[in-house]
Amino acid sequence: MSVGDHHIPMGGGRVYAREWQPDGPASAPPIVLLHDSLGCITLWRDFPAELSARTGRRVIAYDRLGFGQSDAFPGRLPLKFIYTECSTSLPPLLAALNIEEFVLFGHSVGGGMSTAGAADFGARCKGLISESAQIFREERTFEGIRAAQPNLVPGSPQRERLKKYHGEKTDWVLSSWIDNWLDPAFVLDLTSHMKRIRCPVLALYGDLDEFGSTGQAKYLCDHVAGSAKLHLMKACGHVPHRDRPGEILDTVANFLG
Length: 257
Known about the structure:
The structure is a single chain. By secondary structure, the protein is of the alpha/beta class. The chain has an 8-stranded mixed β-sheet, sandwiched between helices. 39% of the residues lie in helices and 20% in strands.
């Protein structure tokens, strides 16, 4: 397997991306990963490489602008960021990596972004894999954020750990998660996007997810225009690809096969 790193210019700064290319030909559309609210490429750990090896596909992950090794975001993250991330960041990313057709795989807020992206890119998106995604407002999400806040105050071990991945951007990353989601003006309802999704959909969700209920995944499957498969996991929390990597890899490979 070969691994390549890229720094891709786009509006507001350069975005850091990494791609994993499996041994042998990889003619099927590549998989593009979108990370969660506090995530980055590094926090996917070994999963992208394992996903590439298991599926025989090229896998691309990137740090959204403001996260990880990408440049700082210019200003506050807009409240519509879930709706606009794919339409803003994917065109220059896909062009730079010479990608026409692709599969979107989003975790958590990245799953919401991928839902909007699958609708916006139409026939170019050949599949949507939604893991622990938030696609509509749910009190459980806000309860999870409020419960996490005391552990993320300045000087806390969790905040210091995040600095290893986001450096001087850590305060902005936390504000983009906590302040945006808890803003009374924040709106999340991707129903109209779901109705435009015609590619196959796989929705993954754990029944012990701290930031949402399995109703999120069921709602997605019920409202997309194309075929959808629901895969629920018992005794599983918010990060199935970390806690149940074998099950996720098998399920995704079967879905893409």
